[in-house]
Each structure stands twice: as C-alpha cells, then as structure tokens.
Amino acid sequence: MSVSTSSEIATRAATSPFEFKSAANLLRIEREQSRTLGELLRDLHTCPDSSIFQHTFRTLQEHHFIKEGFSNDFAHWAYTEIGAVGLGERLISLDVREFTNIADLRARLEGIVSDFLAQNPRARDQEAVSPFYFCSADTVVVPTEIKAHNIQEFIEGLRAVSVHSIHYHFIEARLRRELETNDFSIWLKRDLGLPGVAARLNQIDIYTSTAEGVRRQILRTLEGPLN
Amino acid sequence: MEEPRSAVQSQKEGEGQRAESSTVANAVTDTTARPRERRAPRISDTPPPPAPPPLLQDYAPIIGKSQLDELYFLATAVRGKNVKMVNSTAVGGGVAEMLNRLVPLLDELEVHTRWEVITGGNDFFEVTKSFHNALHGAEYTLTQAAKDVFLQHNELNRQRMSFDEDVIVIHDPQPAGLIASKKDHAARWVWRCHIDLSNPNPDVWSFLKPFVEQYDATIFSSPSFARRLPVPQYLFYPCIDPLSEKNKELEQAYIQGVCDNFGIDCSRPVVTQISRFDRLKDPLGVVQAYKMAKRYVDFQLVLAGGGAADDPEGNAVLQEVNDVVGDDPDVIILNLPPWSALEINAIQRASTLVVQKSLREGFGLTVTEALWKGKPTIASAVGGIPTQIIDRLTGVLVHSVEGCAYQIRYLLTHPEFAQQLGRNGREHVKENFLMTTNVRRWLLLFRILLGAN
Questions:
Q1: How far apart are CA B442 and CA B445, in angstroms?
Q2: Is A78 on the interface with B (CB under 8 A)?
Q3: pLDDT digits over A15-69, tens only?
Q4: Contacting residues of A for B394, CB less than 8 Å apart
Q5: Lesser CB count within 10 Å: N end or C end of chain B?
Q6: What is the distance between the alpha carbons of residues B87 and B107, in angstroms, rounded to a whole number?
Q7: Which residue has the higher pLDDT, A205 or B150?
C-alpha cells in the first residue's frame, strides 16, 4: 500500500475542478401564522417545504455569527415567545445535517411538537407573546470566479469565498444531493482521492461554531495532510 | 401641464427650509446646555453640504469582495432595465434617506433607476398624514371628503407621470392610487410599505386595500407589520448605510472632541439613548432606570435627540425630563438640530452601552445604528426591535424600567459578556440590515418580477 506524501497531495490534480458557488435569498412572508403550539403543529403540517427550509437551514446562515444557543427559528420561538423550555430544548438539539430531505425534517419537527403536547396538553392553547410568522425564500444560485484544480487552490478558494458560499456547499448541499455529506467532502473523496479528509470534514460541528469558525476548522482539516 | 418634481429638485427646496429653521434649533440647544457648570456646546447652526453618495466599491472593505461580486452577478440579469421609485417626499424621513443611497447604487449596477416625488397640496398631505397615523392604529373618522382629496391628488399625479419603466415601485400609502395606470402599461408594480400595518384603522385600510391588491408584489419591513393579501409579500428589513455620516467610522480625536464639547467624560462609563423627545421613546423611563442602576454602578447618562424645537409636545417632554433630572451632573441632555448625524455617531461610538427603551417603535433604526457600532444594546421588545435583538445573543431585551436598570448594572459589571453581545450585534447588522443587503434584495425582486431568474 502506497503512502501519500504531503508534497504529492499538494500537487495532486483533481479529476475535475471544484467550482465555488453561493446562494442569494429573498424572503417571502407566507400566510401561516401560529399563535399557539396547537397552531404551530397545524402549520408545520401545511406550510410549504420552503418554509421548513427557511426556518431551519436558512436561518443558520442568517445567524452564522452566533455560536451559542441558536439552532432554528422554531426552537427560538418556543423559548422566547411561549416559554416552553422543555420543547425549546428538544427543538434546539435538532441537527439539520441528519436530514437529506424536507419531508423527514418536517416529520421530525411535527413529532417533537406533537410529543410535547401529548405530555403537556394544557400548553396547546397557550397564547404566544408574539406569533410565529412563517416565511420562505426565493433562491438564486450565484456562481463565483473561483475554481480549484488541486487542494492548494481549494484552500485559497475557501479563504476567499463568502460565508454564504460555505453554507451553500457545506450545509445546504445535503438537501440538494440527498446525501449525508457535503459538496466539499464529495469532491475531496471523488476528485482528489482523499476519503479520510473528506470524512473528517463531515464531522465538523456547525452548531457550536460560527460560520467563520467552521471555515477555520475546514482549513485546519485540509492543511493537516499538507504539513 | 406641470412636470412631476424630481427628487433632487425637492431636496434643494428642503435644504433651504432646514437652513431657515436652524436658529430655532440652536436656541433650543442653548437652553438645554446643562448642568450649570457645563459650558454651552458648540453646534453648527446650519446643515453641512450633503456628502457625495458612495460608490459600490467603497463598500468592499466592509462586506468583502465576494459579497460585492454577488451584487454584480445578480445585476447582470436585469442590467439595462428601467425602474421608477415613487414616494411623497425628497427630504426628511427614512424613506427619502434610503432612496438617496439606493438609487445611485442601482444606477451604478446599470439598473436605470429614476426617483420621482408626487406633488400635492396641504389638503392632500393632511389627509395622508391622518391616514399614516390611522394605519398605525390611531382613532380616525374617514370621511368622503378625505377619500376624494386622496383620489383627486393621486389622479392628478397619475396624469402628470409616465409609467414606461419595467418596474414601478410605489413607497407607502400616499401614492398608492397610481396603480390605476397599471392597466395601460406593461410594467410590474410593487408596493413598498414602510409602516406597521399590524393594527390599522379598519376604515382606512378597507379604503386602501383594493389599491394594494392590484400590485404584483408588496414589501413589508417585518412579518408582523404585514396584512393578509392575495399578492406575494416580501420581507425587506429597513437598513442603514455604513458609509453615511451617522454610521461611518470616525477618528478617535473627533469622538473625543464631540464628547469634550458636550461635557461627556470618556474616562467613565457612558449609557446613551438616542431618540426624539417623545413620550413613546420613554425618556422619563430611561431616567428612572438610570437612578435605580446608579445606586450600584457609576456611569453617566446621555439622552440625545431632536424634535423639541418645532414640536410643542416634544418641548413639554424635554421640560419634564429636565425637571426629573434636576441638577444631576451625570445626566447630559442634548436637544440636537436635525443635521447632527456626525455628533450622534460620535456619541454612540463613545458610549459603553446604548439603551432604546421605547414604548412603541417602528423598526427602530437607532438600535441598528448602535448594533453596527458594536455597542452592547438594551432595548424594549417592541416593534421591529426583537428582529434585531435576539435576547442575550445580539443584545438584551427588556420589558420594564426595572429590567432596564438591572441590565444596565449587569452589562456594566460584565464587560466580556457585553462585548460579545456587541460583536454579535454588529455581525447581525452586517448580515441583514445594511444598505448593500438591501440592494441585493431589490436585485433579486427585479429578477423574479421580470422573469430573469
């Protein structure tokens, strides 16, 4: 079995280049408004897929600078507007990376709220301080001029792109590809022959770090084999 | 037939008006120079000439090249398209301030944008001011005469104006009736509502709603400000311009100079509220909170704003605040003229904490300004403030005088936590509430409306 040296990895040419992209989103206000947990459960069932996406995946991008205590809009609302700490705790622990499609994510959200209401039936009609307003986003994929043909260029590209690009490739990719991985790991494994690095990238915790922190962790993981 | 006024023309007229009123504002400033041992602050009695609008490239150091490139890419699909923005005033107020910056930036991206201001007599603007207040929930009896005035002036403007652009954007209710021209033109029509419609006077809303329902899209500043409508509703948060006089970076020497001028001791903590002397901003509540917190921590309170010069109600509130404060040398009350953006910027930057203890609020752009400057901010959970302040993550939300006092004590004695709030707050603004983010939203909307996605 041959062992790759750092210089060999640094100069290894990818079978196809990695093209960095990003996404720009325009928020739409949807019709659903939940004033109670009972209404939230109803609206979780009927709202468009794009709303589930907005309040879980997309909100992470909007709040990418927070590393403590922000997971998704449903959890935040349960804590601050309903005061349902037990529910908030369960919702906050939801990790979007476990999901490769919106239907499963929606079912998990409904399940958490439904279980909570079964255990706390009086909470169903408790009025929130302010309603949960469902939104969704129209998205435009934005190409960048940055392409990587090897790991060195990939590292340089990662340093240059916006955090929106990191979010697009590293977090949203799961839904696009319907795989429990991300664009970076797929390219590193498939086009650069670095399955170990690809796997380590996929283990980075996006909930305990800011997006810039995630960028730094990705860079550290990539620079490891080069040193 | 009279031509519609261009925004620039109206601005010049407005500047003249502001200059005329400067002596009044200055006189008020002199009367509020306190405490007694503090010398009267020097404030210019005329507005400075307007600064040239920044270029897109000027924003690169703030948002980064990658995000600037995104704007250029988004513009490619709508390059060469023509847009008209219509509102009711070229000077004063947040809408004109925002359009002053937005229009040149869209133009620079080759989305040709023309800004026109509707005309109307006193009767029209009295009616639309009443409508504005009524849409915010004030009591109002809608008469047929008021409806007629609204319709007549909208019709006069409609006949004067052309609507040959690709997109027509109507700001706020005053020109909403221009939609009657939609049937004669191919343009896509957008109604940008800057006011809170969560609790409108039902009669006024019933009168305006049929106009609004004819638009191709509507835009609101917060989901809670919107109404249920049969047309798409988009969310555009209000924004600040990081390069404006109110928000641009300042030299430390300038900040120090402003503080020296106003008698603010920068070697001790400073807690500031910037707002008009208006009961809804609760300046008396802020003074109460100051007195409660002051028993435990040493700091100065700065209440800075305007609005008392030409507003009897504002003058009364200012007098009440002065009475409550008495001769406390650590409370600095500044009634500033409207052209004090640089001074306000400096005071915000010199502050240890910023407070916005409003009882009611629109979006609360003074909060946005404070967050942008990285200031730990304590604010009431009203209006659009909770959108900006995620409690204990980007600032602190309060619901009472006591809560405000406690949080002042807490943040002044926990500077590391306070600084973390400030850092998060600034990032929140950078991501969501800057002019460049707003440009991106407009480009995305134009792409959607024109089928260019």
A1: 5
A2: no
A3: 999 999 999 999 999 999 999 999 999 999 999 999 999 999 999 888 888 877 6
A4: 66
A5: N
A6: 18
A7: B150
**A24 in B contact zone (CB under 8 Å):** yes
Q: B5-9+61-239+434-449 in CATH: which number?
A: 3.40.50.2000
What is the pTM assigned to this prediction?
A: 0.88
CATH number of the structural domain B243-432: 3.40.50.2000
Asked if the Cβ–Cβ distance from A140 to B447 is below 8 Å, we say yes
Residues B402, B421: Cα–Cα separation, whole Å: 21
B399 — contact with chain A (CB < 8 Å)?
A: no
Per-chain mean pLDDT for chain B: 89
**The tokens 């005061």 sit on which residue?**
A83
Residues of B in contact with A31 (CB under 8 A): 228
Extents of the domains making up chain B = 5-9+61-239+434-449, 243-432
What's the pLDDT tens digit per position in B299-314? 999 999 876 565 677 8
- For residue A161, list chain B residues with Cβ-Cβ distance below 8 A: 66
Predicted complex ipTM? 0.90
The CA angle A159-B429-B260, to the nearest 5 degrees, is 110
Q: Looking at the complex, does the CB of residue A141 fall below 8 Å from at least one CB of chain B? A: no
Q: Is A68 on the interface with B (CB under 8 A)?
A: yes
d(CA B378, CA B380): 7
